[in-house]
Amino acid sequence: MRHISENDIDAIALGSTVLGTGGGGDPYIGKLLAKEAIKKNGNVTLISPNELSDDALVVPIAAFGAPMILVEKLFSGKEFLEAFKMMENYLGKKIDAVMPAEAGGLNGVIPFSIAAEHQIPLVDADGMGRAFPRLEMTTFTLHNIPVSPITQADEKGNKNVYHTINNTWGETLVGATTIQMGGSCAIGCYPMTGKQVKQAAVHGIVSYAQKLGNSIINAKNDKLNPLESLIKAADAIPLFSGKISNISIKTEGRWNKGICEITGLKSDHGSTMILEFQNEFLIAKKDNKPVAITPDLIVLIDAENAHPITAETIQYGTRVAVIGMKADSQWRTPEGIILGGPQKFGYEEKFIPIEILNKID
Question: Is there a domain that residue 218 lies in?
């Protein structure tokens, strides 16, 4: 158990955006909401999953929608409070703690505003250890935990509660109404017990995000190379260095889909990297050969300040670095690869661990 102050949010948001692998949404609005709630209500208590009682009720609260829409259609914060309240009312039970559904960007910090407002703990865990574009793509699904009931609220006051026959149908139905809501909404999902969180969640992800964020922030303060500092903190593999030479992106439903082309510089001069993404970066190819494949993490970094770049904010001409990180061990199981691997997204490539692709012991 430890306390998270307003001053900690910047590092957590920055590290969450690294773990978002290009998705998860820009954290700016989430940071403002979290800081304002902490300033008003006091610090948030961060607890490990093992500090939960087995019968505690824990609910992830998240933003849901296309990241490109989230840049233009801002949240008020009331949507998330409403999704929380709806879940308590529907279950007829007080929620004991909240947690992120995913570690990525906006969703890495949104639950802090809920925890501060209701003065309940936030669990140092999530259901991905990164960001994924679909609601069923969680370690909770790997443990047969239902996504339902799902509560949904938008900024206009529209509200829904869903019971779906499986977690994939949760994505299908909530996704359909989200489009009608303008492309974004707030949800409560995967209500579970403390015992289930201990078994199914990716532990320590909030602390890990804070560590990654601090590695960048502190490096700048100490006049060190922030990219090298991040690579060391993340135990990441440098994959490419270059300049954005082409970007193709479109919004389909609630997904940003596209390709980012990077022309090599320095040691990568003469080579080209292609990043393919569906909200998150899913495959990185250097000279047409894969060097990183989902569910391993692919992170696009601004070479000037080591800040992660989300897919919807890629700009032509930016000098960048691409780094890769190992996925949580749950994603590297046969079941995890089926749920979060390349075939799930329609790619022909098979998953090969990043350290094997890059011949690292």
Answer: no
